[in-house]
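To: structure desk
From: M.T.
Subject: fold request, one chain
Message: Could you run this one when you get a chance? Sequence is below, nothing fancy, just the single chain.
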Amino acid sequence: MSKLTDRFEKWDNINPHFYVMFKRFTFEAINKGHNHLSAWLVSNRIRWETTIVTQGNPYKISNDFIALYARKFMKDYPQHQGFFKTKEMTRG
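Reply: Done. Structure tokens follow.
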């Protein structure tokens, strides 16, 4: 397992609500007819919602994890494979 993947899995396990929101906003876009979207757009919407709209601590997600959430979503929902554009991962 790469260092990045290890860090991602640890962060994801500690912050499960991030993926809940990631799925919520992604499905919202899909249900509005979008065939493709940026995982950065979804992640920044989460940042907006948790910083501006809600009170309490915002999610402090590393930008390094955004592509991994896109991959996780498409793995969990293979019918939406290709919804997020991803590049080949390099070892890190």
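Reply (cont.): The two ends are 9 Å apart (CA to CA). Let me know if you need anything else for the meeting.
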